[in-house]
Design brief:
eight-stranded mixed sheet; 24% strand; 35% helix; four-stranded mixed sheet; alpha/beta; UDP-N-acetylmuramoyl-L-alanine:D-glutamate ligase
Amino acid sequence: MKFEECTINRKGVLVVGGIIVDLIAKSARFKLVNDNLCFPFDSKITLDELNQDTGGSAHNLATNLAELGTTTYILGSVGRDDHGEEYLRNLRIHGAITKYVTLKKGLTGISLVFLYNGEKTVLTSRGANDLLGEEDLNLEVFDRVDTLVLTSLISEKNMALMRKAVEGAKKRGIYIVVNPSMSMVTHRPEELRYAMQNSQVIIMNGKESMLITGEKDVDSAIKKLKEYGAETVIVTLDVRGALVLDDERSFRVPAYKVKVVDTTGGGDSFTAGFIHAKYKGYSNEEAVKFASAVAALNIITPGASTDLPSEEDVVEFMKRAEPLEP
């Protein structure tokens, strides 16, 4: 069956989490020493490149989903500044519905993204994101969606919002997808476990899965994550593809062979691809293949939201792309 031929009637998706300005820096003077990104102390470095991109997990997910064709609402916070206005315009351009984005007195969040050989090190000031609280969740949105996606939420106010969102979604039988950041794994492990224990899908990368479970390898970590009760657990493994464990079996899906330019937003685009494919009625395996293709198209361009693919773009890519050898 062709991807375009498989579809089911669904409502929309509500994505909750971070909205962050990405300042992306590259320099030949960046060095990797014992897994630490380094540059000379007490010096002035002229960057080879400095680019600005709209980012943040909720923003990246929402724009990717909307471009793929899924009706997408976003719940997040931006500052009353130029960056905040820019974000609202950008989300709308991509087709995301911004009715539930709130304006806060703080500054819009900013990340400094240092690129080295296509991989990234990120320094983040969350700004207005930390002010997003339970008072910002209008429960009417649950009448418009059948899926809730929880991304990076860190502050105490964020935690109150997350609990209210999970409780509201469960009462209404809404499908919950948890796709946390490393910051959430590190700073809010107990609250994250609560969200995962009430979710149908958990998606995280290998490092995050081992840290939250305390396991030393991803195969053990994914089994531990499945014990939380989710129907499907996916652990992404960069160029090694993705490991999937659902109620029927465990399997791996390879990544696609592409030239990596910037991995920023790759995980968010993967999650968006998976959710969109499930909306089309596809199996977990086919959905993960589609998700991997969306991620591949994301990481071949700089930034998290540059040249976002449509569903047609992804389908055409999958016809010609080669999987990486395991």
